[in-house]
Design a protein that fits this description.
It is a single chain. Helix 1 packs antiparallel against helix 2. Strands 3-2-1-5-4 form a five-stranded mixed β-sheet. It is built from three helices and five strands. 16% of the residues are buried. It has 152 residues and is α+β, with helices and mostly antiparallel strands. The termini are close together.
């Protein structure tokens, strides 16, 4: 993943631990003050929200621990790889399209960033400028020609 993507994950983890966790604890304490816990739906909801928060924090910690930050200065534009921007032409419709291939956590279609695990990214990996590829996608098969590869 990119350094930017890694930094965003770390910031999100810090926010969850510093802001959201105390809020969840306060909600439980407030609900506990309302009396009998056996019939206190507010208490049950607050405990469930806290469990979801802790699960999210734990998943984020695992993602951060397992993350590998890619040094973009060492990337080549010879072939398509993670963190490269690929400009291509859809040979069926003759339309231009451009995507940056990123880690799953950084994917954002609106920003033109697709996950390395998508069929399109998988079909492009290792290809060079001028290569024509056929990629199976959920709606059928798409034919693309790679026009340019650059570092994102």
């Amino acid at each position: 993943m990119s350094q930017e993507g890694y930094d965003k994950l770390v910031a999100e983890l810090q926010r969850l631990e510093a802001v959201e966790r105390p809020k969840a604890s306060a909600a439980i304490a407030e609900a506990r003050e309302k009396g009998d816990l056996s019939e206190n739906s507010e208490y049950d909801a607050a405990k469930e929200a806290q469990a979801h928060l802790e699960d999210k924090i734990n998943r984020l910690k695992v993602t951060i621990t397992e993350a590998k930050v890619v040094d973009t200065s060492r990337l080549s534009t010879e072939t398509v790889q993670i963190l490269t921007k690929v400009e291509m032409t859809n040979l069926t419709t003759n339309t231009k399209m451009s995507y940056t291939i990123v880690s799953e956590n950084e994917a954002d279609l609106r920003a033109g960033k697709i996950s390395i695990k998508t069929p399109i990214a998988q079909g492009l990996l290792g290809k060079k400028v001028g290569d024509e590829v056929e990629i199976k996608i959920p709606r059928g098969t798409i034919k693309l020609r790679i026009e340019n590869i650059s570092i994102a």
